[in-house]
C-alpha cells in the first residue's frame, strides 16, 4: 500500500518544515520529496553532521539523497535553480529534480517587477518574483516548465511577450539577467514529468511552503502569499494517486514569527537563546524577523482550516526551537488530539524526539 506524509506550517512560515522533512527523509530513504506550493522564495534549512543547506529550488530531502518533485502549483526560476544545483553538487546532495509540465516559470522580468513595484513593496515581497509569476500566469502571457524544452525560438518569443506585458524596455540590467536566465536553461538537464512519475514510489513526503496563516484564501489580505499553503494541493495529488494512508505533521515553533509586513498577534521582543543558526535574517525586502508569544487561538484556527482540505489517518504536532525559549508548550490549549507530539531542540533533525 502506498503511503504519504504531509508537512504543513501552522503560522506565517519559518516554522521548521525543512527540519521536519529532513527527519522524515531519514526514515524513508526510498521516498521522493514533493513541493506542492510556493517556489524559490522558500528557505528551508537542513543541517547534517557535515553540511548545511538552505533549500529553495530543491526539496529538503536533497542532502539525504532523495529526489525532488515540484508540482504544477509551484514556481521555478532557472537562474536560482542552477545556482543552488551547483551548491548541492559541492555538498554531495541529490540534484535529481523532476518538474510537472505546468509548473510556472519565473523570468527576470517577474523578479524586476517584484522588486521595483511600489505596491508590492508596501504589501510585502521576498523580491524573488513568485507573486508576479503567479499573477502573470492568469494573463495570456504564461510560461510553463514544459516551455523550457520547447524550441529556443519559441521560448524567446514568449519571453519577449512577457517583457512587453510588464512594459520593460531593453536595458543593461534586463539584458544581463536575461542572459543568465538563458544560460541556466541551457545548462540544466530538464526532467519534465506529470504525476504518473510519482507512481514509481511507495512512499511520498509532501513538503509545504510558508504557513497556513499566509494562505491566499485564509490569510489577512493583502499580506498573503500567492499560494494554497494548506494541505489542499497535496491531498488532491494523493487522491489522484489513490493514496488513502496519509499522515499529517503540523509544525510550529514554540513562539510566533513573521518575516515580512502584515498583521501579527502578540508581537513583542523575545529574549531568545541558541538561535545562532537562524536563517531568516534581515533583508531589504522583508526586513527583520518579527517575534511574539505563541497564539493558541491562531493555532486552533489554522488546524480547523486545514480540516477542510485533508482526510488523514494520523495527525502529529511538531514543535521546533524548544531550546530557544523558556516558555512551555500548553497542549491543553489545543483543540486537536494528536497521535504524537515531537519536539526539536537544535538545527539538527537527529535531536527530534517524542515529547508527549
Q: How would you describe this structure to a colleague?
A:
The chain is an alpha/beta fold and 356 residues long. It has a domain at 3-101 and 193-251: 3-Layer(aba) Sandwich (Adenylosuccinate Synthetase, Chain A, domain 1), CATH 3.40.440.10. Helix content is 28%, strand content 20%. The strands form four sheets. It has a ten-stranded mixed β-sheet, sandwiched between helices. A two-stranded antiparallel ribbon has the order 3-4. Helix 2 packs across helix 7 (172-187) and helix 3 packs across helix 5. It is globular, with a radius of gyration of 20 Å. The mean pLDDT is 91.
How would you briefly describe this protein structure?
The protein has 356 residues and is of the alpha/beta class.
Topology:
Layout: E1 3-9, H1 17-27, E2 32-35, E3 44-47, E4 52-55, E5 68-70, E6 75-76, H2 78-90, E7 97-99, E8 104-105, H3 108-116, H4 118-123, H5 130-136, H6 152-166, H7 172-187, E9 191-192, E10 203-211, H8 232-240, E11 245-253, E12 256-259, E13 289-292, H9 296-307, E14 314-320, E15 340-343, E16 353-354
Amino acid at each position: 500500500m502506498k503511503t504519504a506524509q504531509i508537512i504543513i506550517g501552522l503560522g506565517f512560515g519559518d516554522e521548521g518544515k525543512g527540519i521536519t522533512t529532513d527527519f522524515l527523509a531519514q526514515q524513508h530513504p526510498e521516498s521522493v520529496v514533493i513541493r506542492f506550493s510556493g517556489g524559490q522564495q522558500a528557505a528551508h534549512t537542513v543541517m547534517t553532521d557535515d553540511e548545511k543547506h538552505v533549500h529553495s529550488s530543491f526539496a529538503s530531502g536533497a542532502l539525504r539523497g532523495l529526489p525532488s518533485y515540484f508540482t504544477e502549483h509551484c514556481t521555478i526560476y532557472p537562474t536560482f535553480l542552477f545556482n543552488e544545483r551547483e551548491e548541492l553538487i559541492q555538498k554531495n546532495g541529490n540534484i535529481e529534480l523532476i518538474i510537472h509540465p505546468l509548473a510556472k516559470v519565473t523570468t527576470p522580468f517577474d523578479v524586476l517587477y517584484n522588486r521595483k513595484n511600489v505596491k508590492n513593496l508596501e504589501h510585502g515581497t521576498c523580491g524573488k518574483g513568485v507573486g508576479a509569476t503567479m499573477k502573470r500566469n492568469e494573463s495570456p502571457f504564461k510560461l510553463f516548465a514544459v516551455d523550457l524544452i520547447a524550441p529556443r525560438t519559441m521560448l524567446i518569443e514568449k519571453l519577449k511577450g512577457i517583457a512587453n506585458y510588464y512594459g520593460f524596455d531593453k536595458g543593461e540590467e534586463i539584458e544581463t539577467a536575461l542572459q543568465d536566465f538563458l544560460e541556466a536553461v541551457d545548462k540544466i538537464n530538464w526532467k519534465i514529468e506529470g504525476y504518473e512519475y510519482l507512481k514509481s514510489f511507495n512512499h511520498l513526503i509532501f513538503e509545504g511552503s510558508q504557513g497556513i496563516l499566509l494562505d491566499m484564501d485564509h490569510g489577512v489580505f493583502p499580506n498573503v502569499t500567492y499560494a494554497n499553503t494548506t494541505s489542499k494541493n497535496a491531498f488532491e495529488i494523493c487522491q489522484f494517486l489513490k493514496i488513502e494512508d496519509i499522515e499529517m505533521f503540523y509544525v510550529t515553533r514554540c513562539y510566533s514569527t513573521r518575516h515580512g509586513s502584515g498583521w501579527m498577534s502578540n508581537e513583542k521582543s523575545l529574549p531568545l537563546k541558541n538561535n545562532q543558526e537562524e536563517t531568516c535574517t534581515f533583508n531589504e525586502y522583508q526586513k527583520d524577523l518579527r517575534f511574539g508569544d505563541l497564539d493558541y487561538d491562531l493555532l486552533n484556527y489554522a488546524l480547523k482550516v486545514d480540516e477542510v482540505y485533508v482526510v488523514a489517518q494520523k495527525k502529529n504536532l511538531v514543535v521546533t526551537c524548544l531550546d530557544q525559549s523558556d516558555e512551555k508548550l500548553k497542549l491543553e490549549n489545543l483543540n486537536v488530539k494528536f497521535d504524537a507530539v515531537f519536539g526539536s531542540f537544535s538545527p539538527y533533525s537527529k535531536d527530534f524526539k517524542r515529547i508527549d
